[in-house]
Amino acid sequence: MALEKESNGLNNYEYALEGHFCDLSDTKDVEDVGTSLEGDANKLAYCVTDVPPWYLCIFLGIQHCLTAFGGIIAIPIILSQGLCLQHDALTQSHLISTIFFVSGICTLLQVVFGVRLPILQGGTFTLLAPSMAMLSMPEWTCPAWTHNASLVNTTSPEFTEVWQTRMRALQGSFIMGSLFQMFVGFSGLIGHFMRFIGPLTIAPTISLIGLSLFDSAGTSAGYHWGVAVMTTALITLFSQYLRHIPVPIPAYSIHKKLQFTRVYIFQILPVLLGIVFSWLICYILTAYDVLPTDPENYGYLARTDLKKDVISKAPWITFPYPCQWGMPTVSLAGAVGILAGVISSMIESVGDYHACARLSGAPPPPKHAINRGIGMEGLGCLLAGAWGTGNGTTSYSENVGALGITKVGSRMVILFSGVLMVVMGMMGKVAAIFTTIPEPVMGGMFLVMFGVISAAGVSNLQYVNMNSSRNIFVFGFSMFSALVIPNWILKHPEAISTGLVELDQVLQVLLTTSMFVGGFIGFILDNTIPGSKHERGILAWNEAHEGDFSNTLESREVYNLPFGISTYFSSFPWLRHIPFCPPGVTASLEETEADTDSLENKQPLGHLESSQVIIGATL
Questions:
Q1: pLDDT tens digits for 30-70?
Q2: Among the residues of 492-598, which ranges form H helices?
Q3: What single string gives the DSSP state of each residue in 144-196?
Q4: Rounded to whole angstroms, how far apart are CA atoms 438 and 123?
Q5: What's the pTM?
Q6: Closest by alpha carbon to 193, among 316, 47, 62, 346?
Q7: Is 427 within 8 Å of 316 (Cβ atoms)?
Q8: Coiled-coil stretches, from where to where (predicted)?
């Protein structure tokens, strides 16, 4: 398909992308958003290079932050169990502030210097699984007294050293993993890695990310199943039953004064609305002492006044800084374990880039933009490790889906989101408020989120011929082995004894990480058992990109570096051979064309953590 370029009064372009195109108008105000939501589902109100009015940027930037809200705050809360911080809400609030702050910085770097698409950066459950596996090792098991709230003195040096030593070990592991990701991205190796990946490797890997976290969901929900089920029911109601029902929102314009614009708020913010409603109901039940006041009684942890002192203790302004928990330490076992999650995160992000380009009215990302984006995500993981978030950063699939809902693909909106997250990270009391969410409410959210992640993995089997006994064997054996082996290793940690302590630790982390075990077995079997590409789903997997194209002029406008950097680089012909540098002005179409043979497509909507994989051979 040839690219159609039309210039309008704003000197922007219209990109025709296989039925996805940006229909620009000369007059753009807040009514455009409502019109785009009601009109043609393929028309965009603002393309990737457009700049909406400042007030619209702020509103939509807040919306993107709220869309990522559930995933961002869930990671520190789950991680606090492995860090022995269950009863230290103030430190949990510091972790939430830090992850918001770093996510904002990484978003700004990615949009300005990375892939340059409107794509939000934040923490990922892909890296949470190997982190929890590392913290479950015998030397990092929490002391028994940290599980008893009456015995925990959160200000004592002993307790501080307990959780900070574990955090420093995580930081060092993420820093080492990020160096590998930066190398793979900036060297252009990501395309070669993905040549060996198929749906039968991806499906068990993604599914096991959600399944491996079932214990955290069950523990949190079990504190009060009534509240947890209520939260799950509300999220289900908003996201499935009410998602196509618009809500009238008052809006004001100079020409039409006060009017109402219909917005599909249930489709955009189902998780946030479910948490807020459940949180409010728990507050009312707490105020009238319907919930028990005795800590020994069932349902006590559903009260909202358990951590009320955290808000008063938290500072108004805080500034996270590198090495705030001490100098990171490095262990071979931790670095190798995190490496498995980093590889999965890279593959997920490549799919996000292609989905984001389609939904934002941009040409398919060329190779240099993909390489730069993966390398910049590696830099983001490096920053996350240095600051001590306990997690890395990756592209957020939820926010890519939000682009398709709002029909606003401007990267300026995501820049506002990044700035907002940085500001939220410096507001200590905002993060402290998040820690007062009752445990059962979070448990209800986990039931939905982890279930969707598991289903997202299984959905990759749509490309595979599941009537084939070969494929049934590969998927079934990979999934079942990934449940059996980690469970047995956790019950018999002494079984691994090679005589080398470092090797024992590496095997301990890898074999207790379900996503690694399932992904590795699926990778080996899928690439060694005879089978045609059609049977394995490789042909169907790559069909999504057969019609992709790239035009030199438009691709440069979207993906080239800002501030005249690309123009400066073009004066040095040898720089065009560097994988992450944009080609010169005279570069041919082939040099800026996306590598569609090696990069897979990821469906943008309805997937939380899709198209992720482990390449076991690299370990």
A1: 344 444 334 444 567 778 888 888 877 887 888 788 778 77
A2: 501-511, 514-528, 533-536, 538-543, 552-559, 565-569, 589-592
A3: GGGG-GGG--TTSHHHHHHHHHHHHHHHHHHHHHHHHHHHHHHHTTHHHHGGG
A4: 21
A5: 0.76
A6: 346
A7: yes
A8: none
